[in-house]
Amino acid sequence: MITRCSTITTLAGQSGIDARGLMYIALLIALCLVGFIIIVQVKRRIFDDQPNRDQSSATLMESLDQMRRTGQISEDEYQRTRRSIIEKTRAMLDPDSTDSDQ
Question: What is the dihedral of CA 39, 43, 44, 46, to 10 degrees?
């Protein structure tokens, strides 16, 4: 390990880059790698998280029921919206199920 560092320092010295500059370059590369890992994890959570989609539909249904109970929407509006949410959720989970129902 010490010979590698000394070799890098020697090469850096020959090319005109001091050790401090080499340290900043290594730090920049490390930060880029960490940033890439964070971006990949966030992307994976946003686009590949199927249970959260189901949970958001359930949360929407709960909010809809709350609005019906407090009188913000009528029973008819509640039933139409509820059916629409159920149909869209079924279509999202199993695209073939809507074809066989009709």
Answer: 140
Kindly provide the residue ranges of all beta strands, DSSP E only, lying in 1-102, ordered along the sequence.
none
φ, ψ of residue 72 in degrees (nearest 5): -75, -30
Report how far apart, in Å, the C-alpha atoms of 99 and of each of 83, 87, 96 are: 16, 12, 5
CB 57 within 8 A of CB 89: yes
Per-residue model confidence as pLDDT tens digits over 17-65: 788 889 999 999 999 999 999 999 888 887 775 555 555 767 888 888 9
Count of alpha carbons within 13 angstroms of residue 22, beta-carbon side: 15
pTM exceeding 0.70: no
